[in-house]
Amino acid sequence: MVQLLIVDDDIYTVEAIRSAINWRKLGVKQIFTALNARQAKQVFEQNKIDIMLCDIEMPQENGFSLLGWAKENHPEIECIFLTSHAEFNYAQKAIQLNSYDYILKPVPFPVLENVISKLINKLNKEYVMRKYQEFWANNHPINAQKYKMPDMDMWAVILRDGAKDDLFSGIYSFLQDLSKTNCLNANNLERFQQDFLQMIYSTLKYEGVKAHELFDDGESKRIFEKATHSIKDLMYWIQYTVEKTHPYINKGDDKQLTLEKVKSFIKSNLDKSLTRTEIAEQVHLNPDYLNRIFKKETGMSIKQFLSHERIELAKKLLASTDIPVSVVALNAGYHNFSHFSKTFKNFTGLNPVVFRQRHSSSDEQISFAK
């Protein structure tokens, strides 16, 4: 059963939260309250607190400072912040302190109850996992002389070379050997998972990819949390992780091929309202990652390249045809003529009409008149 502490300098908020939620249904054994950080620390010193609901703006010592103290003295504490201010730096600080959630006041009680319920489910799963690991440790003692982690650096090289089958084969052989030495237990599976994930993250960092761009979705988190339940779950997580990582680990030739595909797609669809997401989908990459490698290789962002190609097409049509300027704009992907004129002048120093007058040749123009 969970013990929970509510910290807020507004006593009415404290009482409202305490009385509005069905704590017994959630599995909360006891509720403690405090009106400031000093009182909260006294509660911590006398009781085991699992969850803290904490206001941020409090006199003398704010909620961020209190959570920092709590994390140092009670590392397993989970915190849900409550605040009246939707400021980015507040949310950023809450993330840095590894708080579980951040809820704006006035607190919608159904939302708060749902967040607390999810957090308690998380705590219960972690408790079961710890007991599971203790069982494994007690019944499958580790032979320190025989147990040795694999060469993750070599696996990273294999992964960067694109040899997925060789990587899977090496991992499977290692786990088989681990089983034969009686070292296949929950602790070692978790150690293996952590080291393998470090290898993946290091490889992604080497390629300039941010890990959260790939693994911040619900499915990735669910598969990760289940991975150490069994060898089958671990292998599934490994295959899932490698398959999701592989498209982002490109050798030079592959990267150039990807960028050429992107350029070709853009040039073939200049008359359409293209977005970065639509472009990235053509090469199965995250839009932010694609934009980074595109700019690194070409010196232009995807948006800049798209604008450049649109204006180049417009210049060509203005100089070599007699089609109306408004139709030129549409062919170049601009559906707002005013925006087209402004962008065109930014690139060329001339508005479209003047550009046509100065650069067109009546002898060379292609006429579309009936």
Structure explained in plain terms:
- The structure is a single chain.
- Helix content is 62%, strand content 8%.
- It is of the alpha/beta class.
- A five-stranded parallel β-sheet has the order 2-1-3-4-5, with helices on both faces.
Structure summary:
The protein is an alpha/beta fold. Helices cover 62% and strands 8% of the residues.
Bulk shape: flat
Number of helices: 19
* Biggest β-sheet strands, sense, barrel: 5 strands, parallel
Strand content: 5-15%
Number of strands: 5
What's the Cα radius of gyration? 29 Å
Order of strands across the biggest sheet? 2-1-3-4-5
How far apart, in Å, are the first and last alpha carbons?
84 Å
Average pLDDT? 83
The share of residues in helices is 55-70%
pLDDT < 50 stretches = 140-145
Order of helices and strands: EHHEHEHEHEHHHHHHHHHHHHHH
User: Structural class of the helix and strand makeup?
Assistant: alpha/beta
